[in-house]
Amino acid sequence: MRIELPEIGVSNILDGFNNVYGLNGFASKLSKVELDKTRLYRYVKLEQFKENVKSNELVFVSPVLWEDKYERRFLFTDYSSLNFQQGKIRCMCITNEPYYGEEACWKSYSWKEVEFECKDGKKECKIMRNKEMVRLTFNLGELLSTLDDFFKDSRAKIYIGETIYGLEVIEINNLHREGKEFHDVFFPKKFDVENYLSLMLIKRKAFSYENEIRIFIYYGEEAGKIEKSRNKKYNEEEKEKLLERIPVTYKNIVSEVRTSPFLTDVEHENQKNELSKYFSENSIVRSKLYSSGWELKSVSCDETKKKL
Known about the structure:
Elements: E1 11-13, E2 20-23, H1 32-37, E3 39-45, H2 46-55, E4 57-61, E5 89-95, H3 102-109, E6 111-117, E7 123-129, E8 133-139, H4 140-150, E9 157-162, H5 169-173, H6 183-186, H7 193-199, E10 212-218, H8 236-241, E11 243-247, H9 250-253, E12 254-259, H10 265-275, E13 284-286, H11 301-307
Parallel strand pairs: 2-9, 12-13
Antiparallel strand pairs: 1-2, 3-8, 4-11, 5-10, 6-7, 8-12, 9-10
């Protein structure tokens, strides 16, 4: 079956902004008012979120820290034959879908590795469910305005686009080969920043439930040597160099903090009390994934037949 792709390698400046560009048609027809009404969502660890709120920072990361190797497959490809030299980028991944795939997102992000000591003194690791997760609701207009203002005197540009899930693994592996399907779409003779960032939007079909949106900061300067080391394990000092910390006022850009559906009532109240130091109590809610609020009553088959 033929895969339908958006127009690849194009961008348009978004309405009401000076330095924010929509990739491959993203939000191209939306006004600034409509962008202000748009909501995007992000699942984060509670401790990490509290640290960021305390320091008033929104953190973007280098794609070298992404776990999935297929997502960063084209990060440091040699594009010299296309007369292009990629620049340093930082990225933040969010989603535009609050309901579809919600359970999968809570479950996939809600795991942590816990180290414990056995009776014989040996240490082992166990994967356990992490209830210390929250989902943030972002006001897209306010978020992009914050970024636009921060980088107004910089060469950096902000790009935002939808992740591309249509390609199979074999197609991603062969995408750079001339003559292969979609090669000319992603590697045109006139190759520019938008084409490069479109490659950074590719993700395997298995993750399509995420409905991911990616916001890139593109600096237009060559990435540091530390980023070009493949499969490298970074220490804390090195990791810090791979981050961009943007000063923000969280109350302006986050309208809701949603706690995990796996929490007990007591656990939710405890987290709500912690978060109420930074947000109004009305904006802190518990996920209703497993508790819709409706009482389910038993149904009689006889009653159903009578109605039919």
